[in-house]
Amino acid sequence: MSRKWVEKEGLLWVEKNIVTREQYTQILDLYNDKKHAIGVLPLLGSILVGLGILSFVAANWQEIPQMARLLMIIVLMVACYGGGELFRKSGNDRLGLAMTTLGLISFGGGIVLIAQMFHLVSYDIMSFIVWGSVGTLLTYLYRSKFLYLISLLIFTCAQWYSTIEHDGFSYVGFIIMAVGLGYYGWKNQHMLLAWFFSLSIVLQSLILVLDREWKFLWIFIPLMALYAVGDWIKDRSSGFALQSVPLAAAFLFAIVMVLMFDDFTDGDRYELLAEPLYFIFSMLVILAASLFGKWTNGRISSGFEWVLLVPVIYLQSSIAVMYLVILFFFSFYVLWSGYMEQWRFKINFGTLLFIVTTMVAYGKLTWAFMDKSLFFILGGLILLGLSWFLNHRKKLVLSDMKKEEEPHD
């Protein structure tokens, strides 16, 4: 929630005698943007200092005696972690976190430099897994969202490096990250952490499918398992953040099917199709877990989101048309649920999905035979018209809801 929003809405609260002027001022003090901006500076500074130290040492590494190198790495880590503790005890939590972050960066850099110094050859990413695990432990120790995100970045980059350099997906790294950081996110529910965790899982699932050369549809098993986990989270914002990336991936897949499936060869289709018996059975199990979680938390109507996963790709004909119907249905559902929940973000998101779907349908139906200049002109007019109509409709609906909530004399 931003300070500007509180300033604007708070004046209405005062006018309606919901809060007093003094309470309004006290609420504003809780949303001091300057404090937040200043608090971010030490964290950004710690990253820049860490990168500067590593680049300086790496540039002069060969000229430094071997024992001096080892001593420098140890002293730097001890100084960073010790400095972090001293700053925390003196009440400077932000500077303490910055120093701890420097310690984590120097630890990872030290692993690489020591391996280079003693000519150690690695055939996997175990050193990166250790680095990410240390970051995870520090996340639990200091309960820091910033350390959480850095640890998540380490594991994600390590997985990419493992696939590129060692030709293999690291199941150990994936499990440690999923369990360690996943459990932390579950216990300390936060929308930003859930979103980035979901993004990392999706990226690593994509890396796994491509590395193992599995049929592409198998990627939706871990993605929708993650989606089902979101149904068991009571905090709706965190659950929605966890589910948004898998849904976005399914929506993007449906768009590709609409635009390109008619041009696919039998070989292209073969690369997509997982074994139908095992795939559909697995999806039904995940669907059951998802619906039970929705029912438990009173969100059973959101089960319509599963329409994106209807396996129409196994049909023999009209596949592109069916996916287009699914895209429109999903867009309408998001719009409808946004209005029902009076959730402005969801209304805007549903509006965007509907506009994208409309343009996909327009492109699919007209690109082949329409003059290209006319295609873009009409497309722009449709886009502007839809934007105006949907925004106008949104304002009317929200205005009506606001009037209904106002007390009547």
UniProtKB/TrEMBL annotation:
Q: Which residues form the signal peptide?
A: none
**InterPro entries of this UniProt entry?**
DUF2157
Keyword NADP in the entry? The reply is: no
Q: Name one Pfam family in it.
A: DUF2157
- Write out the entry's keywords from A to Z: Membrane, Transmembrane, Transmembrane helix
Transmembrane regions = 40-61, 67-84, 96-115, 121-141, 146-162, 168-186, 193-210, 240-261, 276-295, 307-333, 345-362, 374-391
Write down what this protein is called.
DUF2157 domain-containing protein
